[in-house]
Amino acid sequence: MQVLPALHEHGNHVVQFYEESDYLCQVVADFLVAGLSNGDPAIVIATEEHRVAIVSQMQSRGVDIEHARVQGRLTLLDARTTLESLMGNGAPDAALFESVIGEVVSPAGTGGKRACLYGEMVDLLWRDGLQDGAIQLESMWNGLAERHSFRLLCAYAMDNFASASDAERFMEICRQHDHALPTERYSLRNGATQLLHISELQQRAKALESELEYRTKLEAQLLDALQERDELLHRERAARADAEAANRAKSDFLAVMSHELRTPLNAIAGYAELLEMGIAGPVPERQREMVSRIQHSQQHLLGLIDEVLTFTRSESAPRRPLENVNLAEALRAAELSLLPQMRSRSLTYMPVTCDANLVVCGDAGRIRQIIVNLLSNATKYTPRGGTVGMKCEVANGRVAVHVHDDGVGIAPHHLETIFEQFFQVDTRLTRTDEGLGLGLAIARRFARAMNGDLLVTSTIGEGSTFTLLLPLAG
To answer: ∠ CA(181), CA(184), CA(185), 5° rounding?
Structure first.
């Protein structure tokens, strides 16, 4: 490792930049030993680690450390402790600096002697994030040099200036000194006149090196993130494909199951009808009642099968194209299909009130299916003699179709769960006629597929109102 020529040749206030502490301690030891050899006292204000290394280097050059200290020719001070004694309100205090450092430097620079002083308090300030404080302290050293005789060597680790934003303060540090000496990476082949320029270039190179390291790290992190994203996308696509395959398998199974179940159920319906017609002989009244129950159960089972298949198709079928639908016609067709059921339960029905020319954007078949489901539920959950009705309103570019009843009502905690698949309200009024709990789930799914929605309000014992929202045709 090459050491620079005697630092005494470079002026009274010199800054040494360094990469490794070993190099710094070697340079400082050369500086101090040269001063001691000329009969000048030496002062070291350094961290404990550096003091130990500097003393070791001086001893290797033949300096009797204890003898020099006893004679007062060598003073060793701790940089951190000394720095803390100079601070006021988070920055170096000029008065405290003059008092503390002046007391150390003044006796050393007497009798024609010129103290050789090494200090790294400025380096500590920089490492502490107090860059402005470091520059202030350098200025205080220059002011003290006007009143006392000493040569000062300061030092900064080049790692302190690893960012391009440090360039301006770096040059300010250099301007505070008579000379700025580059790090050990530079070999003195072109003489000392280029030292400041070399130091500046080294700072820029350090900043560029740090920037390259940072960008390389970011690039590696980005590549890892992209790889992780690709893996997640691959797993998501695989999971989606598996889910779609499972859904298709479920639909295929339900289609086959429907066919297999419908065949015996249709046979049951046929034989029951033959019995009712008296093909096997006269049918007593008691047996006629039993045949009627067989027919009712067969129809109920077919209804359940249709409900499951409708729900399955609503899950996997592509969205149908929307069209302009005359709402009054769709609602009228739905209510006509439920009137016989309402009459059988002695319910009062309040017919729909809707503008005959009102047109919505949707699917006519699904609108009828939703309304049939809502009217069927209202009929089912309204006691005999109750009232069911339907009306529509237009507001904010949407149509609201209300299906209301004065039936048993729905508990508040069920107002959202009733739209979940396979949910059933537990009521003894309709227990024998309940389906699978899919009707409202299908109805809401159809409503949202038409850019609308299906909502409900209800009060226990007073009835419920289901509201189908649909967009007006543009």
So the answer is: 110
pLDDT band at 397 (very low <50, low <70, confident <90, very high): confident
Q: How far apart are CA 406 and CA 460, in angstroms?
A: 10
Global pTM value: 0.44
The CB-side HSE value for 74 (13 A sphere, CA atoms) comes to 22
Q: In terms of pLDDT, which residue wins out, 291 or 329?
A: 329
* Residue 473, SS3 per DSSP: coil
Specify the residue for token string 């006691």. Answer: 383
For 48-184, strand residue ranges (E) read: 74-78, 87-88, 91-92, 115-119, 150-157, 179-181
Distances (CA, A) of 347 to 215, 351, 381, 422, 456: 77, 12, 11, 27, 21
Report how far apart the first and last C-alpha atoms of the chain are (Å, whole number). Answer: 84
What ranges in 345-397 are assigned the alpha helix state H?
Answer: 364-380
Residue 405: pLDDT above 80? yes
Q: Which residues contact 79 (CB under 8 A, 6 or more apart)?
A: 45, 46, 47, 50, 119, 120, 121, 124
